[in-house]
Design a protein that fits this description.
The protein is α/β, with parallel strands linked by helices. Helix content is about 40%, strand content about 15%. The longest helix has 22 residues, at about 70-90. Bound molecules: pyridoxal-5'-phosphate.
């Protein structure tokens, strides 16, 4: 990039790839701010993220903040259902689509309620995988038409709850994960005299590709083998309940990166369905599970954080794949169920954090002017800084400087040079490296050793958040999440950096970023200004990240704002709800502390000091109040 050309938002797009991962919801505006278009069917509504940040500040809500765009949730629900409906029509597929949202992906009440509401016109249902989730979906899924699918391991109580839900007229399907569950279900159903709807989960031979490939295959944790499925069907038949067997389920993994795995699982699943049909078990539903991926890194590839297909393609492969096998085998087209969670929720929420400081790679350095009788290593190094501008052989300079630095370190250990001389040598060394790096910017070829200079010279931007609370998968499974500045994208970002959080854990960092050329360990950000806050958005956190975080270092849940868009609003949006994050008291209580007795004990200590005349009474009251205020306060930095 020649320095004479003015930086534009298109240049920023090249770095941050917003359009690629933004799926039509996010883009860079001409003013350099990030914009949100929450409804693809109403592109007149464009929300300036900077205005959202301003409003959050005005409301006195502390950062970091989770920002939820409920309209994006609604859009994704509609998009998935409409895509299935349209494809079914085009394919002249005889069954319909009845999807469910798996609540484990984001169980927040507001999220599930919004999905249920947006899904009502499509009879979109819910999926639960544990007793707590089952209790939740029983209360929330009040639509008599939509499905409630129950996966996961089950006990007696679980079965009783499922049957209660049947008694109340719900289409609740118990999916059998292991054979003993079937025996339990049949027994309790007979006792209660309630007819269950039974599904069986197949242990597929096809494996997903990517991080979750072990959800399929012989070593899968869930599901029945072919012979177990046959035994299960016969067991139901023997108990006069063959008609209860209605659904075949499979789920080969989440974030399926390669469409071929989807195709293979559909043909395998369709064959099993057809065979069971021919054996006389007239199943009505085939549930293809979750797995619809998200292109987190914008590469449209089989990278772990990407996928090589679109939602349209995924849906078409399911509908046409199922139709083809069923027509060939001459069995009815089943009702299609899918359990997409990630694809429904990932886009709708993000974390906004402010950068609270820059940690420079090598500090500020010290003054390096010549001193009487200084060691020759210092003058040699200084000489390099003087000749570098005329020198064409950068490799030689690089080599000499590296050698002098190493020698200086040994010399210091042998007490040949002083600490101050060592500091001068280091300061000069990094001045040289910065010059080398600058001159290499326009070079056609950069030797490998020197390629690492960009990283060595990069800064760390300290961000007010915790990776473990807000982006657990970046740490646990190297998931990539897009990070972009919310403003100033019409300005050239001049600081190469990685991001670190405020936990006392060296793993509390983000150092994998989307870049022009694949994944990079640094990302260019803008220089920090003394009089202007700099906010970053961590995007696509709505699936799993929102709910899987932990309280490492006792950093608790984030404050949340729920944004709704509205045509009539001058800014196209309003904050519908604020959900307070954890206070220090909240997180301490979870760890078995008693914050009120802690406050009492502090008060006693302070009172003691006051009684002994070591503190004025007025001062004592102030300190007592301060301690209590901090207990009630937010766990993150107050900025
Ligand atoms: C986790 C899970 C899902 C959700 O998968 P996504 O990849 O998030 O769509 C669906 N079904 C089952 C059985 C699951 O365990």
């Amino acid at each position: 990039m020649p320095s004479t050309k003015k930086w534009t938002v298109d240049d920023s797009e090249h770095i941050y790839r917003v359009k690629r991962w933004g799926a039509g919801y996010f883009e860079i505006g001409q003013n350099g701010n990030l914009y949100v278009t929450p409804d693809p069917f109403n592109t007149d509504i464009r929300i300036d993220f900077k205005a959202v940040v301003e409003e959050i500040k005005q409301e006195g809500i502390q950062f970091p903040v989770v920002v939820r765009f409920h309209d994006i949730l609604r859009s994704q629900v509609a998009l998935l259902n409409q895509t299935f409906q349209q494809t079914i029509k085009e394919a002249e597929y005889q069954g319909k689509y009845m999807g469910v949202y798996p609540v484990k992906v984001n169980q927040m009440r507001e999220v599930v309620e919004e999905i249920v509401d947006a899904g009502a016109p499509f009879n979109y249902g819910l999926e639960a995988g544990s007793k707590a989730e089952l209790l939740t979906v029983m209360a929330l899924n009040t639509n008599a038409e939509s499905l409630t699918i129950l996966n996961g391991y089950k006990d007696q109580e679980f079965m009783r709850l499922a049957l209660l839900s049947r008694k109340l007229g719900r289409k609740t399907i118990v999916v059998i994960e292991k054979f003993s569950e079937l025996i339990l279900l049949v027994k309790i159903a007979k006792e209660l005299d309630i007819e269950p709807i039974v599904g069986i989960r197949s242990k597929m031979t096809v494996k997903g590709r990517g991080k979750w490939e072990n959800s399929g295959g012989d070593r899968a944790k869930f599901g029945l083998t072919i012979s177990e499925m046959i035994n299960a069907a016969r067991y139901l038949e023997e108990h006069g309940m063959a008609d209860s067997l209605k659904l075949l389920h499979f789920h080969i993994g989440s974030q399926l990166t390669d469409i071929r795995a989807v195709k293979e699982s559909i043909s395998e699943g369709a064959m099993i369905y057809s065979e069971l049909h021919r054996m006389g078990f007239k199943l009505e539903y085939v549930d293809v599970g979750g797995g619809l991926g998200i292109d987190y890194d914008g590469s449209q590839s089989t990278n772990d954080s990407s996928r090589n297909y679109s939602m349209q393609e995924y849906v078409a492969d399911i509908v046409y794949g199922m139709k083809q096998v069923c027509d060939l085998e001459d069995v009815p087209h089943p009702i299609l169920v899918s359990e997409s969670g990630r694809a429904i929720t990932a886009h709708h929420s993000c974390v906004v954090t402010e950068v609270v400081g820059e940690i420079k790679a090598h500090g500020a350095g010290i003054a390096t002017n010549p001193a009487d009788g200084e060691h020759i290593l210092v003058s040699d190094m200084r000489e390099l800084t003087e000749i570098i501008d005329q020198q064409n052989n950068l490799q030689e300079i690089f080599n000499d400087a590296s050698q002098f630095k190493e020698q200086a370190l040994s010399a210091f250990k042998l007490r040949v040079i002083s600490l101050e001389e060592l500091a001068k040598i280091e300061t000069l060394y990094w001045q040289i490296m910065e010059k080398v790096q600058l001159r290499l910017k326009d070079a056609e070829f950069v030797p490998e050793e020197m390629q690492e200079l960009d990283f060595a010279l990069s800064s760390q931007y300290l961000c007010n958040f915790s990776v473990f609370q807000s982006a657990a998968d970046t740490w646990a499974i190297d998931q990539i999440l897009p990070v972009v500045p919310l403003t100033r994208m019409n300005e050239k970002p001049t600081i190469n950096c990685s991001l670190v959080d405020i936990t006392c854990d060296s793993d509390g960092k983000l150092d994998q970023f989307i870049s022009e050329h694949g994944i990079s360990n640094i990302v260019p950000m803008h220089n920090l200004k003394a009089d202007e806050d700099y906010y970053l958005g961590l995007f696509l956190t709505g699936a799993y990240q929102d709910v899987m975080g932990d309280m490492h270092n006792l950093f608790g849940r984030l404050n949340e704002v729920h944004i709704f868009s509205h045509d009539d609003d001058p800014q196209d949006f309003y904050i519908e709800e604020v959900v307070n994050g954890s206070s220090v008291e909240d997180v301490l209580s979870i760890m078995q502390y008693h914050p009120s007795s802690m406050a009492k004990s502090m008060k006693k200590m302070i009172d003691g000091h006051v009684a002994q005349g070591q503190m004025k009474p007025r001062e004592g009251v102030k300190w007592t109040d301060f301690y209590e205020d901090c207990l009630k306060g937010y766990t993150y930095l107050k900025t």
